[in-house]
Every structure is written in C-alpha cells, then in structure tokens.
Amino acid sequence: MSSLIEQELEARGVAQVIVILKSQGAAAGIETVSGARSGAGVAAMAAVADSRPSLASCFVSSALSLNSQIAGSGLRDASMFGEVAAAAGVATSKPLKDRRKAPPPVRYYPNLGVLLGTVDQTGLASLSNDDRVAQVTGAPPISPIWPERVAAATLKETVTWGLKALKAPQFWDQGVKGRGIRVGHLDTGVDGKHPALKAAIADFAEFDTLGTLTNPSPAPHDTGEHGSHTAGTIAGRPVKGRNIGVAPEADLVSALVIEGGNVVARVLGGMDWALGKGIRILSMSLGFRGWWNNFIPIIEILRSKNVLPVIAVGNEGPGTSRSPGNYPNVVSVGAADEQRLIANFSSSQKFARTDDALVPDLVGPGVAIVSSTPGGKYKEMDGTSMATPHIAGLAALLMQAAPNATANEVEAAIFKACKRGPNMAEDRANRGFPDGMVAYEHLTGTKFPTGKPKGKPVPTKKKAGAAASKKSTAKKSSKK
Amino acid sequence: MPRKRIDPKLATRLKAAADSVEAVFTLQPPAAAVVAEPEETKRLVAQAVERVTKQLGYGPEQMNVFSNLGAFAIRADSKFLGELAKQPEIKVAMANEQESSMVIEAPKKETAKKK
C-alpha cells in the first residue's frame, strides 16, 4: 500500500485511490451495481456475466470525498471534477449540473482500465485482495499550476479594503496599531528599503539548507515579491497618508526561508530563530500540498510557548488544503473578496477528526489586495497568502489592546467574531469573516470604545480573555 | 515506548542513496512537556548522535540543532541516518528536501471571484 494512501486514511478516515484493473472486463460489476458514470464501452462490458461481488461495493460515497466536496462547492465551471477526468484522459460527458446531484462512489475510465474513487480501510483491504485488481495506488493531489495573478497598482485609497473590512482604522483611532507586538513572518524575505517596510522590520535573517543562520546576516531583502507583499499587509507603515498594514506599528521578525520552498530545515530554522526573538504571532503564507503531518509537534511547541500560528490554507480550491494550514492547532485562513464572496481558488477540506474537522477556520481579505513589493512599488495580488497576514495583523491589534490575553484567548475571540454572509457556504468559509471590533469585545468583555482615547490605548475594564477562554469554546459557540 | 514516525520519503531516500542525505529529526518530548528546554535539547541530540557515532565508527558531516523546537537537521550517510532514526530520543524523522514546494502560488484573475 502506498504511503500516500496510509497518510490519507490516517488523516481523513478515507482515501482517494486509483485502482488498476487486470482486464477491462473486470469492471463489469461497477456498471451493474452502481449504475455510476462510465464512458463509452461500458455498456458492452455490463453484459459480461460475473457472479462475484461488485468492485463498486469496495468504495464509499463519503462526505469527505473529493467528489462530494466538489458537488457541494457551487463551482460552475473548470471544476476539479473535470480536471480529475482530464487527468485520466477521459472527457466528462454529463453537464456539471447533473454531476452535482449525486456524487458517484466510483468513476470508471474504460479506455484506461482504471477506477478512481474513495475507500475506507475495509474497502481498501477488499480491493487489495481481489484478483481482478492489479494495483491500488494513492491518487495524488490535483495540482493545477496557476499563473501568477499579480497586477501593478498604485495606492489610490487611503486605506485598503481589507483593512476597512477588519475594522482596523477603528483600532488606530484608539491608538492601537500593534505597538510592541512582534510578528514572525516566514516567507521569501522582505524589502528593507521599501518606504512602507523599512521601519517595520525589527529583525531579519536568512537560513541555509540545514536551517543554519547565514552569517553575517544580510540586509533585509526579498528573493521574490511574495514576502514583501505579505509583510506590508501585516505591519506596513503609512506612506503619504496611504495605509496597507493592519497593524502599522507592529514589529516584523522576518525570516527568508523559501526560494525553492521545499527544504524543511530552512523553515524550522526560521521558526526556531523567530521564537527566540519573542514573537507572539507567526504568519506563514506557505505550506505543502495535501496532508503532511510532520510539523504537528512543531506547531504544538509554538502553542505551548503562547505563539499564535496563522497559516494559509492554500489556493487549490474546494476539497484541497495544505499543511500546516490544515492542522487543527493553527488558525487556518481562506480568502474572500470585498463582497464577502469566497474566492474560487480558496482551499477548503473536511477531515475525519473530532477537533477542528473543517479547514479553513475562517476567511479573510484575499482578493485584489494592494500591498508593497520590492523597489518601492505596490501590486495587487490574490490568494490565501494575502488573507493570512490580514488575520495576523488583526491578532497583533488585539494583543496590544489586551496585553494579558493569551494566544488561545485571542484566537477564540477572533473565531467568535466571525460571521458567515448569505453567500458563504459553511463548508467553504467555516466560521466566516471576522469583525475586529467584535473580536475586541469578546476578548475584553467591554464595548469597543468610541471617541478619542484619553492618553492610553483602549481601556480594558475586564480581565483580558474573560469572555474567550478556549479554542474549543469558540468553535462550539461559533457554529451555533 | 512512544510512537515513532518515519517520513516515507526519507525511508525511500535512505534505501536508495549511496551518498549523503539530509534529514530533519524531532525529539520525543519529556514527560508532561511539549518540548525539552533548549539546553536539554542540545544534550539529547548530542547523546543520540554520539551513540550512533560510536556504533558505526564515524559521525555526521554537518548538523544544526533547533534548540527552541526540540529538533535538528543533519547531513550524513544513509546508514548513519537509518541508525539515528532508531534511537529512543527520536520522535519524527523526515526528509529535509521534500518533492513539493511550500510556496503557494497566486491564482489567476479569472478564478478569483465566485460565490
């Protein structure tokens, strides 16, 4: 059995599998029993007599399956369903509208002599022992290669839409801008000369392939533009009265850990270093496709040190996610647009676990986001990578406003402040989109102040965290 | 004995590799704690590596301890890493270089907005 199947079964209780048949006739039972979809040539095979149990009985029609995810996603076109078929060299013959009604337990590709479906442990064992089956392998994640969605932009608005949506300016009016809060930022680096960023970078480091700190440490720089963009959204300073940063007085502890993006020790080196720099939040707009559980103990360590990990769920659409953004112990962030519609690309996935089964936990501003890029420029980008630093910045505002609050309490307050709009399906948005002022009220137990502050930042009458104690509490209440 | 997990990619690489391999290991946490203190992490790593060094008669090429995370990265030959993975201090062993990338590419504009 392939390790991919083992990992999927461990994580979700079911796994997508590709079954290679010994002969095409072996699939006759599929058509007979399930009546499920098949391509040309199956009608003839259906006539083949076979008294053995159908192979279709080995598959499950699970709510966790890829097909079910797609059926419930509301996708109108270019769905991953079509891509699955395309990947297997089979044209999808029925309109998607019909396909959505009843997700099939198994799909048959007659020209290939291959079945694709979802199995549980029992089904997998049955398939593996069936003499009609030549091989059972894991179905690799569907990985479309998206072109960059980047557009040059100028700062037209004094405040970007994402900042307004989170109510960041209302915090600023109270003198709360993230001052004194250190936010870990692991990315492609950050342009230290950008006018919006140079004062935001408290510390910068670069790591080699074994996670060793490059010495001497170079000046802050970006190997691409992703890192400068995400950094600007967290803590970019105002330039000529125009704002891109949610927490424009927070301090960035920024590590350059990705170029190729596939070296684990570089990321760990960055995390280890940032922890030593006293971060309260870790913003990571990166992750491995699918379920990769090796970072779970690392994230547990961050939580034990009162650090809030805020991590992107991925840009591959419904039925997908990335690790560690799909772990139960992180704030998993998806993307929405200005109209509070879930971005088509935003990943979402259900897992077979009792704790935090659905990812993302929430959605943030992730479409048409203007932020800083190297060379003193600004660009508009889409992605859960853009939504994640918005939520990290919001956490920084809340941590300044309630300095005694723990990471768990801030997380719970953000979760409780989320609301799903009329066009947000729960399986795509989970708790929905957060309101910063409501999060403040949950965190402190007091109304959000109005009017000008008198000397000190937002007064907190009640002990921080009084209204928001545990992540589990927030989950239950937010789903009511 | 606490459960140990070996990344399948590392297992495959150790079987196939003739030259040195890079791996990342996390340590079993101490009882009632999520992670050992930084100094204890360094001691446990040194203890495990020295044990294997004595057993095989040679050591690793290079290593780096993440003392805040209870983890370390190491470059050594495949036999050394295979033995190291068996040591009681180790909780997870994974390949340092993964096949896929952690970079999340931006989507194209046409797919950006939808309910």
Description:
The complex is a heterodimer of chains A (480) and B (115). Chain A has 480 residues and is an alpha/beta fold. In chain A, 30% of the residues lie in helices and 18% in strands. Chain A has 17 helices and 20 strands. The C terminus of chain A is likely disordered. Chain B is of the alpha+beta class and 115 residues long. Chain B has a single domain, classed as Alpha-Beta Plaits, CATH 3.30.70. Chain B has three helices and five strands. Chain B has a five-stranded mixed sheet with strand order 1-5-2-4-3. Chain B is globular. The C terminus of chain B is likely disordered. At the A-B interface, helix 1, helix 11, strand 10 and helix 12 of A face strand 2, strand 3, strand 4 and strand 5 of B.
Helix content class of chain B: 25-40%
pLDDT average of chain B, as an integer?
88
> What's the architecture of chain B, going by CATH?
2-Layer Sandwich
Question: Which overall shape of chain B is indicated by the principal axes computed on the Cα atoms?
Answer: globular
- State the helicity of chain A in percent bands: 25-40%
Largest sheet of chain A: 7 strands, parallel
How large, in whole angstroms, is the Cα Rg of chain A? 24 Å
- Multimeric state: heterodimer
Measured between the Cα atoms of the first and last residue of chain B, the distance is 49 Å
SS field, number of helical segments of chain B: 3
Q: Give unreliable regions of chain A as ranges.
A: 31-49, 63-104, 140-148, 459-480
Q: Count interface residues per chain for the largest interface.
A: A-B, 69 and 46 residues
Q: What is the straight-line distance between the termini of chain A?
A: 41 Å
Can you tell me the CATH topology of chain B?
Alpha-Beta Plaits
Write out the strand line-up for the largest beta sheet of chain B, numbering strands in chain order.
1-5-2-4-3
Total of DSSP H or I helical runs spanning 4+ residues of chain A:
17
Mean model confidence by pLDDT of chain A: 79
**Which structural class do you get from the secondary structure elements of chain A?**
alpha/beta
Shape field of chain A: globular
